[in-house]
From TrEMBL:
Gene from which this protein is expressed: asrA
Pfam families, per the entry: Fer4_22 (PF17179)
Source domain of life: Bacteria
Cited NCBIfam families: sulfite_red_A
Domain 4Fe-4S ferredoxin-type: 210-242, 293-321
Species annotation: Clostridium lapidicellarium
PANTHER family per the UniProt record, alphabetical: ANAEROBIC SULFITE REDUCTASE SUBUNIT A
UniProt entry keywords in alphabetical sequence: Iron, Iron-sulfur, Metal-binding
Upper lineage: Bacteria, Bacillati, Bacillota, Clostridia, Eubacteriales
InterPro entries with a match to the protein in the record: 4Fe4S_Fe-S-bd (IPR017896), 4Fe4S_Fe_S_CS (IPR017900), Sulphite_reductase_A (IPR014259)
Protein name: Anaerobic sulfite reductase subunit AsrA
Length: 333
């Protein structure tokens, strides 16, 4: 069911909803970009539709809403352990098709890859999706190649144009908010093609793991981990125990985002490391996104958002790497 609403009425809807929901959406942060004269689009809590950035791709993914950068798992003292209280409010999350598909990938890792992760599950159960359409493909996007340019997994679709708000309501629990509004046909537009085309190798010979193509990334990559931080599907973390100054026997255990691309991530006892060179780390990341994950779950982990290409200071392109891998795989045959 679709509705046509003016800006003021939609903001009233958000105000009413905020009593029960925390509303997150991409917001343009002036002067907060990589350089002093650039902006950054990042997920923040919003109160009005005017705050939401509909025309730019967010620099960071909505993953940090469901999988916090730093998350306390429990507090401990000498003789007790206590999990933190969970916010009673639900979450309404504005996001694009590729990011809806990215959360599906995170669900596989945290909810269906063995026992459910209770910390992620508690947040995930509270989330409803508001789809934002892409009128055109953004720079470095290759979502069509990954089959992630469309989705039906959303509760609301919102289009903001000429001070009017077009809403498709797929979740009947939201319909009472719009009962007095004019009805119309509303359907999202999905991107049908990207400038960048990516070809995923279907059959990968194990010899490709030792191909010389990975040596290029040992020379170029600086192991900053930016690609992992902005990625919508990366799920790795490390554990930290924090001890309080006033009582060294009390503290908290946190999990913190970590990165397979940074030095020390695979270090083990005795000073050994599974992947020492940056090329080996790049190989692991790429193969995990388009080979290992697919081998287990039946589809690729990468959704083609292109954020890794956007953010790399050395202009390393993930999409180019996959195409090189495809060419190398054909040569091996």
């Amino acid at each position: 069911m679709g509705f046509l609403i003016d800006t003021e009425e939609f903001n009233n809807f958000l105000e009413k909803l905020s009593r029960h929901y925390r509303i997150y959406a991409p917001v343009n942060l002036k002067g907060k970009g990589r350089f002093s004269d650039t902006d950054s689009v990042r997920y923040m809590q919003v109160n009005t539709i005017e705050e939401i950035e509909f025309n730019k791709k967010s620099n960071f993914s909505p993953r940090e809403v469901l999988l916090p950068i730093t998350q306390t798992l429990f507090y401990f003292t000498e003789n007790s352990v206590k999990e933190p209280e969970v916010d009673s409010k639900k979450i309404l999350l504005f996001l694009r098709s590729c990011d809806v598909n990215a959360i599906k990938r995170i669900d596989e890792i945290y909810l269906r890859n063995g026992p459910e992760d209770i910390y992620y599950g508690k947040l995930r159960d509270k989330v409803k999706f508001v789809l934002m359409e892409c009128e055109h493909s953004f720079e470095n996007c290759f979502c069509c190649s990954m089959g992630c340019n469309t989705t039906l997994d959303y509760d609301l679709f919102v289009r903001y144009k000429d001070k009017k708000v077009f809403v498709e309501c797929r979740d009947r629990s939201f319909e009472p908010f719009f009962k007095n509004e004019g009805q119309c046909d509303v359907k999202p537009h999905f991107v049908k093609s990207n400038d960048i085309k990516v070809r995923i190798p279907e059959n990968i010979d194990e010899n490709i793991f030792n191909n010389f193509m990975w040596d290029e990334y040992s020379a170029r990559c600086i192991a900053c981990g930016r690609c992992n931080v902005v990625c919508g599907t990366c799920t790795c973390f490390s554990m930290q125990d924090i001890f309080y100054r006033d009582n060294e026997n009390a503290g908290e255990r946190r999990r913190v985002w970590s990165s397979c691309m940074v030095d020390g991530y695979t270090d083990i006892a005795g000073g050994h490391s599974f992947r020492k060179s940056n090329g080996e780390r790049m190989r692991f990341k790429v193969m995990h996104k388009i080979y290992d994950f697919r081998k287990k779950f039946g589809y690729n982990m990468c959704v083609g958002c292109g954020r890794c290409d956007d953010v790399c200071p050395e202009y390393i392109s993930f999409s180019n790497c996959v195409n090189k891998l495809n060419n190398a795989a054909r040569e091996v045959k």
